Protein backbone atom coordinates (compact mmCIF):
# COMPACT_ATOMS: atom_id res chain seq x y z
CA UNK A 1 0.00 0.00 0.00
CA UNK A 2 1.35 3.44 -0.94
CA UNK A 3 2.13 6.13 1.62
CA UNK A 4 -0.58 8.30 0.05
CA UNK A 5 -3.15 5.52 0.42
CA UNK A 6 -2.18 5.26 4.08
CA UNK A 7 -2.97 8.97 4.42
CA UNK A 8 -6.32 8.52 2.68
CA UNK A 9 -7.22 5.67 5.01
CA UNK A 10 -6.83 7.89 8.08
CA UNK A 11 -9.68 10.15 6.99
CA UNK A 12 -12.90 10.16 9.01
CA UNK A 13 -15.16 9.57 6.02
CA UNK A 14 -12.84 6.98 4.50
CA UNK A 15 -13.00 4.96 7.70
CA UNK A 16 -16.77 5.31 7.95
CA UNK A 17 -17.60 4.79 4.27
CA UNK A 18 -15.14 2.92 2.04
CA UNK A 19 -13.83 0.94 5.02
CA UNK A 20 -17.20 0.49 6.71
CA UNK A 21 -17.75 -2.74 8.62
CA UNK A 22 -20.97 -3.10 6.65
CA UNK A 23 -19.94 -4.64 3.30
CA UNK A 24 -22.89 -3.16 1.39
CA UNK A 25 -22.15 0.37 2.61
CA UNK A 26 -18.44 -0.04 1.82
CA UNK A 27 -19.14 -1.41 -1.68
CA UNK A 28 -21.60 1.37 -2.53
CA UNK A 29 -19.17 4.12 -1.50
CA UNK A 30 -16.24 2.49 -3.26
CA UNK A 31 -18.29 2.33 -6.44
CA UNK A 32 -19.09 6.04 -6.07
CA UNK A 33 -15.41 6.93 -5.84
CA UNK A 34 -14.64 4.61 -8.74
CA UNK A 35 -17.21 6.45 -10.86
CA UNK A 36 -15.70 9.80 -9.87
CA UNK A 37 -12.18 8.64 -10.77
CA UNK A 38 -13.36 7.39 -14.16
CA UNK A 39 -14.98 10.75 -14.88
CA UNK A 40 -11.86 12.58 -13.69
CA UNK A 41 -9.74 10.78 -16.26
CA UNK A 42 -10.76 13.28 -18.93
CA UNK A 43 -9.19 16.15 -16.97
CA UNK A 44 -5.55 15.06 -17.13
CA UNK A 45 -3.21 18.00 -16.87
CA UNK A 46 -6.03 20.40 -15.97
CA UNK A 47 -7.14 22.29 -12.86
CA UNK A 48 -9.60 20.40 -10.65
CA UNK A 49 -11.60 21.57 -7.63
CA UNK A 50 -13.39 19.24 -5.22
CA UNK A 51 -16.04 21.47 -3.65
CA UNK A 52 -17.11 19.91 -0.36
CA UNK A 53 -14.08 17.63 -0.26
CA UNK A 54 -14.65 16.25 3.23
CA UNK A 55 -11.54 14.44 4.44
CA UNK A 56 -9.88 14.59 1.00
CA UNK A 57 -10.57 10.95 0.10
CA UNK A 58 -11.42 11.62 -3.54
CA UNK A 59 -8.42 13.88 -4.18
CA UNK A 60 -6.10 11.47 -2.40
CA UNK A 61 -7.34 8.65 -4.63
CA UNK A 62 -7.10 10.91 -7.68
CA UNK A 63 -3.43 11.64 -7.06
CA UNK A 64 -2.78 7.88 -7.20
CA UNK A 65 -4.67 7.51 -10.48
CA UNK A 66 -2.60 6.94 -13.67
CA UNK A 67 -4.27 10.00 -15.24
CA UNK A 68 -3.89 12.96 -12.90
CA UNK A 69 -4.76 16.66 -13.04
CA UNK A 70 -2.07 19.33 -13.10
CA UNK A 71 -3.33 20.71 -9.80
CA UNK A 72 -6.08 19.86 -7.36
CA UNK A 73 -7.81 21.92 -4.67
CA UNK A 74 -10.21 20.71 -2.01
CA UNK A 75 -12.64 23.17 -0.43
CA UNK A 76 -14.62 22.76 2.78
CA UNK A 77 -16.84 25.03 4.85
CA UNK A 78 -15.33 24.16 8.25
CA UNK A 79 -11.86 25.41 9.20
CA UNK A 80 -11.07 22.36 11.34
CA UNK A 81 -11.70 20.03 8.39
CA UNK A 82 -9.44 22.14 6.15
CA UNK A 83 -6.68 22.11 8.76
CA UNK A 84 -6.98 18.34 9.20
CA UNK A 85 -6.61 17.82 5.44
CA UNK A 86 -3.68 20.23 5.26
CA UNK A 87 -1.94 18.34 8.04
CA UNK A 88 -2.60 14.85 6.66
CA UNK A 89 -1.64 15.71 3.06
CA UNK A 90 1.24 18.07 3.90
CA UNK A 91 3.75 15.89 2.01
CA UNK A 92 1.83 16.36 -1.28
CA UNK A 93 2.21 20.02 -2.35
CA UNK A 94 0.25 19.64 -5.59
CA UNK A 95 -2.83 19.10 -3.42
CA UNK A 96 -4.16 22.18 -1.61
CA UNK A 97 -7.07 22.69 0.78
CA UNK A 98 -8.96 25.93 1.38
CA UNK A 99 -12.16 27.13 2.96
CA UNK A 100 -15.09 27.66 0.62
CA UNK A 101 -15.11 31.32 1.69
CA UNK A 102 -11.59 31.68 0.24
CA UNK A 103 -12.97 30.90 -3.22
CA UNK A 104 -15.16 34.00 -3.18
CA UNK A 105 -12.22 36.27 -3.96
CA UNK A 106 -12.31 37.77 -7.48
CA UNK A 107 -9.09 36.02 -8.50
CA UNK A 108 -10.86 32.66 -8.18
CA UNK A 109 -13.28 33.48 -11.01
CA UNK A 110 -13.02 31.14 -14.03
CA UNK A 111 -10.12 29.25 -12.43
CA UNK A 112 -11.07 25.57 -12.67
CA UNK A 113 -11.41 23.36 -15.72
CA UNK A 114 -13.41 20.83 -13.73
CA UNK A 115 -15.35 21.05 -10.48
CA UNK A 116 -16.53 17.98 -8.60
CA UNK A 117 -19.29 18.52 -6.05
CA UNK A 118 -20.22 15.20 -4.48
CA UNK A 119 -22.63 14.55 -1.62
CA UNK A 120 -23.17 18.26 -1.01
CA UNK A 121 -26.36 19.49 -2.66
CA UNK A 122 -28.63 17.21 -0.66
CA UNK A 123 -27.61 19.23 2.41
CA UNK A 124 -27.99 22.71 0.87
CA UNK A 125 -31.13 24.61 1.87
CA UNK A 126 -31.11 26.86 -1.22
CA UNK A 127 -29.08 25.37 -4.10
CA UNK A 128 -29.37 28.35 -6.44
CA UNK A 129 -26.57 30.50 -4.93
CA UNK A 130 -24.21 27.51 -4.80
CA UNK A 131 -24.90 26.62 -8.44
CA UNK A 132 -24.11 30.21 -9.35
CA UNK A 133 -20.89 30.13 -7.33
CA UNK A 134 -19.71 26.92 -9.00
CA UNK A 135 -20.52 28.39 -12.41
CA UNK A 136 -18.48 31.48 -11.50
CA UNK A 137 -15.49 29.30 -10.57
CA UNK A 138 -15.60 27.30 -13.83
CA UNK A 139 -13.25 28.29 -16.60
CA UNK A 140 -14.71 28.80 -20.10
CA UNK A 141 -15.52 25.35 -21.46
CA UNK A 142 -15.35 23.95 -17.91
CA UNK A 143 -17.19 20.89 -16.64
CA UNK A 144 -19.23 20.54 -13.45
CA UNK A 145 -19.69 17.04 -12.02
CA UNK A 146 -22.39 16.75 -9.36
CA UNK A 147 -23.36 13.59 -7.51
CA UNK A 148 -26.21 13.26 -5.05
CA UNK A 149 -28.02 10.38 -3.38
CA UNK A 150 -31.31 9.06 -4.71
CA UNK A 151 -33.75 9.33 -1.82
CA UNK A 152 -36.95 8.60 -3.71
CA UNK A 153 -38.64 5.53 -5.18
CA UNK A 154 -37.39 2.03 -4.45
CA UNK A 155 -33.90 3.29 -3.43
CA UNK A 156 -35.28 5.12 -0.39
CA UNK A 157 -36.86 1.88 0.84
CA UNK A 158 -33.58 0.02 0.50
CA UNK A 159 -31.55 2.83 2.05
CA UNK A 160 -33.78 3.23 5.07
CA UNK A 161 -33.56 -0.51 5.70
CA UNK A 162 -29.76 -0.53 5.37
CA UNK A 163 -29.44 2.53 7.61
CA UNK A 164 -31.67 1.02 10.24
CA UNK A 165 -29.74 -2.25 10.31
CA UNK A 166 -26.41 -0.40 10.39
CA UNK A 167 -27.69 1.70 13.28
CA UNK A 168 -28.68 -1.40 15.20
CA UNK A 169 -25.18 -2.74 14.65
CA UNK A 170 -23.58 0.51 15.86
CA UNK A 171 -21.99 1.26 12.49
CA UNK A 172 -21.40 4.91 11.66
CA UNK A 173 -24.11 7.33 12.74
CA UNK A 174 -26.88 5.69 10.73
CA UNK A 175 -29.88 5.71 10.23
CA UNK A 176 -28.55 9.07 9.01
CA UNK A 177 -31.82 10.87 8.32
CA UNK A 178 -34.67 12.23 10.35
CA UNK A 179 -37.44 9.67 10.62
CA UNK A 180 -40.30 9.63 8.14
CA UNK A 181 -43.95 9.56 9.06
CA UNK A 182 -45.85 6.87 7.15
CA UNK A 183 -47.39 9.51 4.85
CA UNK A 184 -43.98 11.14 4.19
CA UNK A 185 -42.46 7.78 3.38
CA UNK A 186 -45.18 6.93 0.88
CA UNK A 187 -44.80 10.37 -0.73
CA UNK A 188 -41.04 9.79 -1.01
CA UNK A 189 -41.48 6.41 -2.64
CA UNK A 190 -43.84 7.89 -5.24
CA UNK A 191 -42.15 11.30 -5.61
CA UNK A 192 -42.10 12.94 -9.04
CA UNK A 193 -40.48 16.17 -10.27
CA UNK A 194 -41.62 18.56 -7.52
CA UNK A 195 -40.65 18.71 -3.86
CA UNK A 196 -42.85 16.12 -2.20
CA UNK A 197 -42.43 16.69 1.55
CA UNK A 198 -41.23 19.48 3.84
CA UNK A 199 -37.55 18.95 4.59
CA UNK A 200 -36.24 19.54 8.14
CA UNK A 201 -33.64 22.30 8.55
CA UNK A 202 -30.82 22.13 11.09
CA UNK A 203 -28.32 24.73 12.26
CA UNK A 204 -24.68 24.65 13.32
CA UNK A 205 -22.15 27.44 13.88
CA UNK A 206 -21.54 27.85 10.14
CA UNK A 207 -24.82 27.33 8.31
CA UNK A 208 -28.33 26.00 8.01
CA UNK A 209 -28.51 22.57 6.39
CA UNK A 210 -30.68 19.57 5.55
CA UNK A 211 -30.10 15.92 6.26
CA UNK A 212 -31.04 13.38 3.59
CA UNK A 213 -34.72 13.25 4.42
CA UNK A 214 -36.94 14.33 1.55
CA UNK A 215 -34.16 15.07 -0.95
CA UNK A 216 -35.46 14.92 -4.54
CA UNK A 217 -32.82 14.64 -7.26
CA UNK A 218 -35.29 15.73 -9.94
CA UNK A 219 -35.73 19.10 -8.24
CA UNK A 220 -31.95 19.59 -8.21
CA UNK A 221 -31.70 18.64 -11.89
CA UNK A 222 -34.18 21.40 -12.75
CA UNK A 223 -32.20 23.93 -10.69
CA UNK A 224 -28.93 22.94 -12.38
CA UNK A 225 -30.49 23.13 -15.84
CA UNK A 226 -31.57 26.71 -15.18
CA UNK A 227 -27.91 27.80 -14.93
CA UNK A 228 -25.68 25.25 -16.71
CA UNK A 229 -26.08 22.77 -19.56
CA UNK A 230 -26.61 19.26 -18.18
CA UNK A 231 -25.15 17.12 -20.96
CA UNK A 232 -25.10 13.69 -19.34
CA UNK A 233 -26.67 11.77 -16.47
CA UNK A 234 -25.47 8.48 -15.03
CA UNK A 235 -26.00 6.43 -11.90
CA UNK A 236 -24.03 4.32 -9.46
CA UNK A 237 -23.20 1.85 -8.02
CA UNK A 238 -24.39 0.03 -11.18
CA UNK A 239 -24.71 2.42 -14.11
CA UNK A 240 -27.20 0.43 -16.20
CA UNK A 241 -29.81 0.18 -13.46
CA UNK A 242 -30.89 3.80 -13.86
CA UNK A 243 -32.27 6.12 -11.15
CA UNK A 244 -35.24 3.87 -10.40
CA UNK A 245 -32.95 1.23 -8.88
CA UNK A 246 -29.64 2.98 -8.14
CA UNK A 247 -28.56 4.77 -4.97
CA UNK A 248 -26.61 7.63 -6.58
CA UNK A 249 -27.13 9.93 -9.55
CA UNK A 250 -24.54 12.02 -11.38
CA UNK A 251 -25.04 15.16 -13.46
CA UNK A 252 -22.28 16.19 -15.85
CA UNK A 253 -22.80 19.79 -16.89
CA UNK A 254 -20.96 22.36 -18.99
CA UNK A 255 -20.65 26.05 -18.47
CA UNK A 256 -23.36 27.71 -20.54
CA UNK A 257 -22.11 28.79 -23.94
CA UNK A 258 -19.41 26.07 -23.98
CA UNK A 259 -19.12 23.95 -27.09
Tell me what you see in this structure.
With 259 residues, this protein is α/β, with parallel strands linked by helices. The chain has two domains: 3-151 and 205-254, 3-Layer(aba) Sandwich (Rossmann fold), CATH 3.40.50.150; 153-199, no CATH class. It is 35% helix and 21% strand. It contains nine helices and nine strands. It has a seven-stranded mixed sheet, with helices on both faces. The longest helix is centred in the first third of the chain and has 18 residues, at 23-40. The protein starts with a helix and ends in a 5-residue tail after the last strand. The mean pLDDT is 92.
Q: Roughly what percent helix?
A: 25-40%
CATH topology group of the largest domain: Rossmann fold
Biggest sheet strand line-up: 3-2-1-4-5-9-8
Task: List low-confidence stretches.
Answer: none
For the record, give the distance between the C-alpha atoms at the N and C termini, rounded to a whole number.
41 Å
Oligomer category: single chain
CATH homologous superfamily grouping of the largest domain? Vaccinia Virus protein VP39
The number of strands is 9
**Structural class by SSE content:** alpha/beta
User: Which second-level CATH architecture of the largest domain applies?
Assistant: 3-Layer(aba) Sandwich
- General shape: globular
Structure in a nutshell:
By secondary structure, the protein is an alpha/beta fold. It is built from nine helices and nine strands. The chain has two domains: 199 residues, 3-Layer(aba) Sandwich (Rossmann fold), CATH 3.40.50; 47 residues, no CATH class.
Amino acid sequence: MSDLQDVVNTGHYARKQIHSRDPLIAWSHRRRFSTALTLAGQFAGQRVLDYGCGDGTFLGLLLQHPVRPASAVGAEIHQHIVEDCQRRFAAYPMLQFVRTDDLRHPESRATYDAIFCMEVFEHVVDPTPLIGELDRLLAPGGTLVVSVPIETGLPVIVKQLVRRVAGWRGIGHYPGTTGYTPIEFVKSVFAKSTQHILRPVFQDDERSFHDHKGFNWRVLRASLSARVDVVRTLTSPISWLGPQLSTQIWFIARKRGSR
